[in-house]
Amino acid sequence: MDIEAVIWFAEVVNAGSFVGAARRIGQPSSNVSRRIAKLEDHLGVKLIQRTTRSLSLTQDGEALLPMARQLTRSQYQITEWKDSLSHEPKGVLRLTAPHSFAREPLTQWLLNYRSKYPLVRIELIHSNDYLDFQDNRLDFAFRQGPLPDSSLIAKRLFSIEYGVFATPTMIRAGSELKEPNDLQRVPLITAGSIGKVFPWRFRNTDMLPKDPALSFEDTAQCIQAAVSGLGFTYASRYEASPFIREGCLEEVLIPFRPTPIGFHMVYPERKHRALKNETFLVAIQEELEKFGVPEGLVS
Asked: Are both 240 and 171 inside the same structural domain?
């Protein structure tokens, strides 16, 4: 039995493609495909139905998947235990963060960490979704908003102030906005994840944008579109503040500004935590102290 091929099978399912799994494993996609095919031959069953555009699991593939994922978790735990014995940080540090935070300031923080600990390999996944820790072999996740109950540890880094922004010209040209639902009458620029628009949260109410003019995954693109005069966008005051200072954007519906939303670093409790994880926790705390509390954030 090719145990590694079983683990690769789980990676293919988690990634949604052979190419994505190969990228995560660090192998050519042809090697991954060939190993899975040999595993299917050994088991005498078809695990994956392949098409040019997508893949789906057979009934036998569905049956194998939970066991394959358990193998993946066991492999990760063994690696974590081995790394915890080291006297120097090393191994793979795998993280996920929303697009906006991944872009700034997290990327620079990771570069600083890597400069200090060159034996640590860093993998950062940009995603606005709450990715599963076990399926994605995550060490840390940066997440905002209410967190689902779990065994994960959540360390609050700061809170984020949000608001609605548009150019002065766009604001003057539109009808008067007295309450959040009035926004449904003007062009909206929204952020979200694939196939999902995030609600706009206000004090004592939420508003789900209908038929947005533009939708992006990264709020930086939303702000860019708003600065271009294409509509109103909901974004953090931290990201919008440079454009407010330059007179490019103004905030509307200020009395309805929501309570600041908590932003957390999330990670699992480990009996044997690898040195790379311990040093990363210390590094983030040091970066936060240097970062201070910029406009639009609350300590």
From this structure: yes
